[in-house]
Write a structure and sequence with these properties.
This protein has 224 residues and is an alpha+beta fold. 44% of the residues lie in helices and 13% in strands. It has a domain at 36-41 and 54-81. The protein has helices at residues 2-32, 70-81, 98-109, 126-137, 154-165, 182-193, 210-217; strands at 36-39, 57-60, 66-67, 86-87, 94-95, 114-115, 122-123, 142-143, 150-151, 170-171, 178-179, 198-199, 206-207. It starts with a helix and ends in a 7-residue tail after the last helix.
């Protein structure tokens, strides 16, 4: 019995060492990768359902990829580190996948092979058509686990979740303003730059935001 107990302890010790060694390469690569930042996505002032808690989120700063495991992030980072095989002859776009290059090339030649059977909408990307069709069907397959919000696309659900987590990844370089959405930061930056791209054709009024411009146009009786 004593020999069996000692054998079991040795196996447990060996498994623990192997687990620690397996984690070391991933920890090392994460520390050496400049394109990685760790952000906490724990809910603040939000009532969670059940006893579920959110894990810290690992985010790739090269793209919008997010995961809760370091192993998955390491695998994802390799897609940025690979030598690109396909280069666009028109612009600086590069990719490791031929399918991505074919899809990108359509942005230059204007080919839009995917057409909506309900309206005149056309797109170069098949998935964009899938999302568009949902505007006709009303299908919203992505549901929020915190409230009754539903979205037609995964990206829209991800944006919505920031209202629960309080995550504001877009930061102003001029002040301490932070935004949950990129478009909000773009609008804010116009406060610093003074840019007002919306100009009234009836007078010399200019606006930084389209909503302000529309409100102004009503003073002209809706003249456009």
């Amino acid at each position: 019995a004593d020999e069996q107990h000692l054998s079991t302890r040795r196996e447990e010790s060996s498994d623990a060492k192997q687990g620690a060694l397996a984690d070391e390469p991933h920890e090392s690569l994460l520390e050496k990768s400049p394109g990685v930042k760790v952000t906490s996505s724990k809910c603040r002032n939000v009532t969670t359902r059940g006893n579920s808690t959110r894990e810290p989120t690992l985010t790739c700063s090269e793209c919008s990829y997010e995961t809760t495991t370091k192993r998955d992030l390491v695998c994802h980072l390799q897609t940025h580190q690979r030598d690109t095989k396909f280069n666009c002859s028109v612009c600086s776009f590069k990719t490791v996948r031929k399918s991505n290059m074919i899809r990108h090339a359509r942005t230059h030649d204007g080919i839009k092979p995917f057409e909506c059977s309900v309206c005149s909408y056309k797109t170069a990307v098949k998935y964009n058509l899938v999302l568009h069709i949902r505007t006709h069907t009303g299908d919203k397959p992505f549901e929020c686990a915190e409230c009754n919000y539903k979205a037609a696309s995964k990206s829209n659900l991800a944006l919505h979740m920031r209202t629960h987590t309080g995550d504001k990844p877009f930061e102003c370089v001029e002040c301490d303003y932070k935004a949950a959405h990129k478009v909000s930061l773009i609008l804010h930056m116009r406060n610093h730059s003074g840019e007002k791209p919306f100009e009234c054709a009836a007078c010399n009024y200019k606006a930084a935001q389209k909503s302000h411009f529309v409100r102004h146009m009503r003073t002209h009786g809706g003249f456009l």
